[in-house]
Amino acid sequence: MIDQRLPRYEWGQEVVAATDLYNDGSLPDVPEDQLVVAAGGPGEIVQVGHHGEANIPLYMVDFGIVVLGCLEEEIVPPGLYVPEAEGVAA
């Protein structure tokens, strides 16, 4: 049996979007692929779940204007967010 991967973040924790977040089709009143939350947008984790098949934590994050399901790679604590420099290639 595979052990459940523990979440990095917890309920009630403040986070920011680490990247631009677009509608993946889960928001029926918003056009698909439309920007919903820009990178750096503040939010709060309101629920922590787990995707059993993929064995990854999932987070419901309230960004004020919308609640989105996010992966760990899509959110970071506010002090760890570093905006990408515009016009600079990685």
Outline the structure in words.
The structure is a single chain. The chain has 90 residues and is mainly beta. The chain has a domain at 24-74. The protein is 0% helix and 36% strand. The protein has strands at 14-17, 21-22, 35-37, 42-51, 56-62, 67-70, 75-76. The strands form 2 sheets. It has a 5-stranded antiparallel beta sheet, with no helix packed on it. Strands 2-3 form a two-stranded antiparallel ribbon. It starts with 13 loop residues before the first strand and ends in a 14-residue tail after the last strand. The mean pLDDT is 89. Keywords: Nitrogen fixation. InterPro entries: Nitrogenase_MoFe_mat_NifZ (IPR007415). This is Nitrogen fixation protein NifZ. Belongs to the NifZ family.
- What is the straight-line distance between the termini? 39 Å
Secondary-structure content class: mainly beta
Low-confidence stretches are: none
Kindly provide the radius of gyration, computed on alpha-carbon positions and rounded to a whole number of angstroms: 14 Å
- Helix coverage percent: under 10%
Strand order of the largest sheet: 6-5-4-1-7
Task: Characterize the overall form.
Answer: globular
Figure out the total of helices: 0
Order of helices and strands: EEEEEEE
Write down how many β-strands occur, each being a DSSP E stretch of 2 or more residues.
7
Largest sheet: 5 strands, antiparallel
Q: What's the overall average pLDDT, rounded?
A: 89
Share in β-strands: 35-45%
